Amino acid sequence: MAKTDLQGTVDLLVLKTLAQTGELHGYGIVLHIQTASDELLRVEEGSLYPALHRMEQNGWISASWALTETNRRAKYYKLTAAGRKHLQEVEKNFEQLVKGVRAMLRYA
Amino acid sequence: MSFLRRMVNLASRLQLDREIRDELRSHIEMRTDDNIAAGMSPEVARRDALLRFGNPTAIRERIVAVDAGLGVEMFLRDLRYALRQFQKNPTFALTVIGTIALGIGATVAVFSVVHSVLLRPLPYRQPDRLVVATGEMRNRNTSDLPFSSPDFVDLENGAKRMFDGFAGVRTGKMLLAHRDGTMEQVRTASITTNFFSVLGGKVLLGRDFNQADAPSQGGTLDAATPTQAGQNAAPPAILSYEYWQRRYGGNPAVIGQRLSSDANNGSEIVGVLAPGFELLFPPKADVERLPDVWIATRLTYNNADRKTLIYRVIGRLKDSVSVANAQSEVDGVASQLRRDFSLWQTSDCHIQLHPMHQYLVAELTPSVIALMGAAAFLLLIACANVANLLLVRMSLRERELAVRNALGGGRWDLIRQVLAEAMLLAGAGTLFGLGIAWTAVHELANFALPNQPLLASVHLDATVITFAALFGIGAAALFGVGPALHVSRPALMTVLRSGGQNSLLAGGRLLRNGVVVAEIALSFALLVGAGLMLRSFLKLQNVDPGFDARNLLTFQIIAPQASSPEQRSAVTREIHDSLTSISGVTGVTAASPFPLADQFFPIRWGTEQALGDSSKFQSANYQVVLPGYFETLKTPLLAGRSFTEADSAPERNLVIIDQLLAAKAFPHESAIGKRILIRLRTPEPEWVEVIGVVAHQRDTSLTETGREQIYLTDGFMGHGFATRWAIRTSGDPSAYGPIVRSHITQWNGQAVLTEVEPMDDLVAQAQATTRLAFLLIGAFSVVALLLAALGVYGVLSTSVRQRTSEIGVRMALGATKAKVFSLIVGQGLRLGAAGILIGCVVALCLSRWIRSLLVDTKVVDPLTYVGITGAFCLVVALASWLPALRAASVDPMRALRSE
């Protein structure tokens, strides 16, 4: 079975966000996930930042400090090549999970 | 890779903390900004932002925890766990650490020798371009000859194309009269003016020599009449840094001063060398290592000088020139010289070039490499032993490990645990090993043969310590990985099911036995070597050197040279009387050269037959002595009489010969009254009459009998030749040093007393090589023996554990404790017997290596072999004792029940 869990879901959301927006800071990621999911999903800051740090250590995303449009210093993240590849994998896994769960629910 | 990054994060934890804090703060601030934009008051906006965010500290900790999750902190925990394990069983830990320390200590000590002798570049500029040139007289079977002054000039001119330059040097001693009226003996080096520029010696103060300091007299034979220009002034001198400090207290005002009080004639000091400049030559070249004063030398170009071979020659090759090319160029020079000069032609003299480093270490290389091999072998054995011990220990914990595995401890966890233990042991062992190496190297440098310049500079430096660390890690890997892999694939169910049985130990028994047998064989061979060296050493103590070294004080007296033989004779008599007047002195004499203190030179001698056939001339050492020499040194007079005062005159051609020469020259008759021919004072041989025969003295070495010997009187040589004195004292001779000094000063304030040494010390120095060899081999063999004993212990312990249930069955069936005990000891002895047998063969094969070091001891010495075999049986029995006791105390009921 595909190896998917909650942590994997946060990873998927963050990686997908960065794939869609290019470069973004943590707060921006929270906002993007909220808007893009029609306010259905909310990522807790308490799990976002450890996840960002871990993904940075794994080399999936890279970070650099830059100024926001309101002139605040913020840490901007973007996907690396390895991150892009990992995203494909996670996406595929998630599709399978969804397919599986859905099949399960439909089973009568 | 990500593991590495985690390590880096840990190291820069502070920086990381700050970055995380900044990032979280900017998040909260951005939320606050948005809230304000949405119409909240700043205060409410901020509180809302904080509320939504949660506890920033907690988040920060969770982020950091990502790093700690894997890796280093876990490893530290493993180390702590390992440490606790060792605390529980300190004997095991100490045994293993001791074993590693011995292995690493020996290896590192030997490596530091290898490093300073073979690997470290010579302390000169571009030392790989330096070559030493030596003469080789093929017809006379002598090599490593120095050059004469005109030969040097011809070589320099003839090989210019290939060389940047040639430097010549000869060393000696000189008496300096200081302005305060005192005299001092200094070591001198006479050098060609380009010497420091060829070798790359740095002048700290003042200037280097230049060509004008000592103009060489051209390269043509027209210049054979020496030019007198500049001959009157003494050539300038450069001081060594060490002498400058010692004598002048580092005063820069010495530049421009005269070296001696003789203002007109003394050398002018023009410079001071940078510290630590050494003249490195092998001991056989007899070159001072640390001259005090370097004097510019004037090369002469007289054909008459071609017989005076005095200069050691070092050349610097041009950058693109190979040694082989330079050699063929130099061969051309030599063949020209052979055409031009009869000495070169008749002796078939050639010039040989040697890369300087090779030339220096040629003698040492084989023994150093042998030592290195022995040390590496020792380390391997130490590792094998430790692996064995670790395996035994793992077997004791096999159930624990299996349970941990069953409870979810992953394979990697178990491996890491074993590796952590191995690394801890290796680390501690390496540290102690460094300590051992440091001590050993210190001792070695202390007692290194004073004439081995490269050995004296052995020390532990960064390279050596790095080497030790690498070896430690290598060792840990070597003995850690084996058991770790074993542990990592426990047949879990087998272990849990089988109760006491040890699947771990089942395999590799043959290998372990093999290792132990090899260990015993090696240490046996080493111990045989040590035994032979010990026998030699004892023999050496009892060698009859032909004199009685006890209560004999020797010293050199250098008095201002008197011009006529009569005056010189008077000076000798005055010194003799002055020394005789010291109370407690029972004998006074002088000789030159003196046994064990000076270099001896052979002269040619022959009987009547040699008159017609000059090939009948043979070599013997000669020694010039005062009357009373044999009486003072207590050399037995075997026939005839010894010298009297009246014999000591130039025209009295009387000699005393030793028993060896007497046996050779007059094999079947008495030598007394016979005549022999000697060639010493004159180019032509002259007749001398033998008046006495004495016992042979060992002159240059105690280990070898040495050449035959001819004794001449001081008078025969024109008086004043014998300058090394010896007094026989009642009581400790070294106590007489100050008394002698005050007497000599009283006799003549200008006289210099040097090299005051009891004869016993000279004897000890002559024994140094044998003693060093004995100690080295002894130390190695004791270590090897300890390791072998440990190996036996390890193997037997393993075996006892494996056979516990078998032993239980035996005991249940009626075997007594004694029987079980002897079963295990017997197993140990069988291993021992196999090792000793192989060791015998190895020792016999290796014995030719040691032959040259032995003194009056046969290589196959039955006593040594039997004694060491006995000692080994004892050691093996002792090593079997503990495991055997454990086996004998097996409770049959428990052993059977645990099945």
TrEMBL record, chain A:
Occurrences of domain Transcription regulator PadR N-terminal (ranges): 14-89
SUPFAM superfamilies: Winged helix' DNA-binding domain
Domain of life, per lineage: Bacteria
Alphabetical list of Pfam families matching this protein: PadR
InterPro entries hit by this protein: Metal_resp_DNA-bind_regulator, Tscrpt_reg_PadR_acidobac-type, Tscrpt_reg_PadR_N, WH-like_DNA-bd_sf, WH_DNA-bd_sf
PANTHER family referenced in this protein's UniProt entry, alphabetically: PADR-FAMILY TRANSCRIPTIONAL REGULATOR, TRANSCRIPTIONAL REGULATOR RV3488
Protein's UniProt name: PadR family transcriptional regulator
Originating species: Paracidobacterium acidisoli
Automatic annotation (TrEMBL), chain B:
Cell location: Cell membrane
Entry's Gene Ontology cellular component terms: plasma membrane
Keywords: Cell membrane, Membrane, Transmembrane, Transmembrane helix
Main localization of the protein described in the UniProt heading: membrane
Chain ranges of the MacB-like periplasmic core domain: 94-331, 547-721
Topology within the bilayer: Multi-pass membrane protein
Transmembrane parts of this sequence: 92-118, 368-391, 418-442, 462-487, 514-534, 772-796, 829-850, 862-884
Domain ABC3 transporter permease C-terminal: 374-489, 779-892
UniProt-recorded Gene Ontology molecular function terms: transmembrane transporter activity
Pfam family, one: MacB_PCD
Record-linked InterPro entries: ABC3_permease_C, ADOP, MacB_PCD, Macrolide_Exporter_MacB, Perm_prefix_1
Entry similarity comment: Belongs to the ABC-4 integral membrane protein family.
Protein name: ABC transporter permease
Species assigned in the record: Paracidobacterium acidisoli
